[in-house]
Task: structure prediction
Amino acid sequence: MTYDQLDDLRKMTSEEAALAADLAAAIEAVLNEYPFKHKPRSMRFLGAGFGCMEIFCNNGVFTVVRNNGEELDTILELTDFKHTFISLIKLIYEGRQPDSFAEERYNDIF
Result:
């Protein structure tokens, strides 16, 4: 992914930006409450296991982009808020939490 493509993703309506922000806040809440290796985690800074991530919503599609320090790549593109949350939590906590963890966190938050 190029930085021009990233700039295009940032052109969200106010409603889309609010959905993306809500999703990012929910992910951050889980990372904050359930750190691993006894270190604080954040999706906005390198170190969450996937580099720093940013969430966008354009035309009903949630796109999660990560920067691993070398390149930008899209790790998820989904059309459902709940499915995007669950899929991203599963990616971050893969091998660290049981399969049910992501859906349980979604139900706790929403």
